[in-house]
Amino acid sequence: MIHYIAYSDLGEFYTLQEVCHMPEMSKDELRKSCEKYNVKPGRNEIGDWGLPCRDLCRLHNYLYKAEKNMAARRDDDPWA
Fold it and tell me: Which of 2, 18, 35, 62 can pair with 14 through a Cys bridge, CB separation 3.0 to 4.6 Å?
């Protein structure tokens, strides 16, 4: 389940490890989701890999909508 994230409270940059803890997914699942939704990680000024706030919000929004659509399809199936 994708949890609510207050976008206004986010910082400027989150490392990949920090991003994995937000939607509670493994690094491999995060990589696949980023590739699927064309969200590319970048480096901050220290050299750590991660996502800027804008890209994190985009990814979270894509994941939320995908989960919502999947739940709606399950509700429409009389055999489920």
Answer: 18
Instruction: Assign 14 to helix, strand or coil.
Output: strand
Amino acid letter for position 50: G
Convert the pLDDT of each residue in 21-50 to its tens digit.
887 889 999 999 999 999 999 999 999 999
Which one-letter amino acid corresponds to residue 38? N
Contacts of 42 (CB under 8 A, 6+ apart): 49, 50, 51, 52, 55
Per-residue pLDDT tens over the stretch 42-77? 999 999 999 999 999 999 999 999 888 877 666 666
